[in-house]
Write a structure and sequence with these properties.
The protein is of the alpha+beta class. The protein has 2 domains: 45 residues; 79 residues, Nucleic acid-binding proteins (OB fold (Dihydrolipoamide Acetyltransferase, E2P)). 40% of the residues lie in helices and 25% in strands. It has 5 helices and 5 strands; from the N terminus they run ααααβββββα. A hairpin with a 5-residue loop joins β1 and β2. The longest helix is centred in the first third of the chain and has 26 residues. It starts with a helix and ends with a helix. The relative contact order is 0.12.
Amino acid sequence: MCHLILAMPALALSFFWLWPVAVAAPAYAVVLLLSVVFYVIVIRVMRTPIRAGPESLAESNGEVIGQEHDGGRYQIRLRGELWRATSGDHLEVGDRVEITGRRGLILKVRRAGDGGGSRLAGTSGARRALQQER
């Protein structure tokens, strides 16, 4: 169905076979204008940032609220939800963490600000890691 909507300007060319030019030209102009408006809306929607799903976690920061006894495993609060997480860093309750990856429902985290580079570079790497785990 969506492909038919995208092809409307091409399909509307049949107006010129069915009607006289005085009627077909304005009708085609209306179809063309509506198609352009539709295309602009579609492009804007496609460029909106990810708001849900595992890819949206890559830019998130959370807070450590608990630590399991075996070390390296933590419970974090992220966007009002509780998650299990693992980290190579030693974290304390109250530390801010950045999400670096995900394995199933367990997040991989590091202390916020320990990127060793720009935050943007760390974010894109985390986004790639989350996309590869799908």
